[in-house]
Amino acid sequence: MVSLEVPSETPGNSRRAPSEECEIAFSHDDPTLLWKDRTTDCVDLKKVFSKFDSSAPISGEILFRARFLCAKYLGGAWRKVKIEDFRIRAITGGMSNLLFLVELPAQLTPIQMEPEKALLRVHCQSDIDQLLSESVVFTLLSERNLGPKMLGVFPGGRFEQFIPSRALQCLEISKPGLSKLIAPIVARVHTLDAPIPKEPQTLQTARQWLERFK
């Protein structure tokens, strides 16, 4: 059970009562740090989730923020998840984003079409043009069943369908059987008429990664 103290009201620290929407995940019996929906602040969101440490207990602020996002953007049974039952764990492998798996507790089942589990992606990259292009391509792939389903979008991140999987190794990709399965999908992706810049970005992207890892 996570216990958090709510800052007392002082002249320099005003605190508004929770809106009806906030009460989805924040109640008087289960207070957050502030009665405020800060999910619209993408900088603040990145700052909070970047503190995630798999070797330490999950901070109360991460739990509250993640649970609020689930309640607001996934809806259904996610609106009923108690803070002590909320399940979240980090997913490794992300290069420019923070990835987390969120799951409904065993005692709750979906009410409508909401997923039992989802991938929570928090954007960390600062290049707005690149982020916009990536989001557009992801949406197109989702609509054409060429990638995970888009489950929800919010400033600073999104919810995606969670597909248990792993990255293929170089040796596996070189196998003819797998290559024959991958090639048609890659071809479909490359023929998409996406409303993004048409200039080649390969060299620019490579230079950015080299600069980052110097």
TrEMBL record:
One of its GO terms (molecular function) is ethanolamine kinase activity. The keyword Methyltransferase does not apply. One of its GO terms (biological process) is phosphatidylethanolamine biosynthetic process. Keywords: Lipid biosynthesis, Lipid metabolism, Phospholipid biosynthesis, Phospholipid metabolism. InterPro entries: Kinase-like_dom_sf (IPR011009). SUPFAM superfamilies: Protein kinase-like (PK-like). One of its GO terms (cellular component) is cytoplasm. The keyword Lipid biosynthesis applies. Belongs to the choline/ethanolamine kinase family. PANTHER family: CHOLINE/ETHANOALAMINE KINASE, RE24176P. This is Uncharacterized protein. It comes from Caenorhabditis remanei (Caenorhabditis vulgaris).
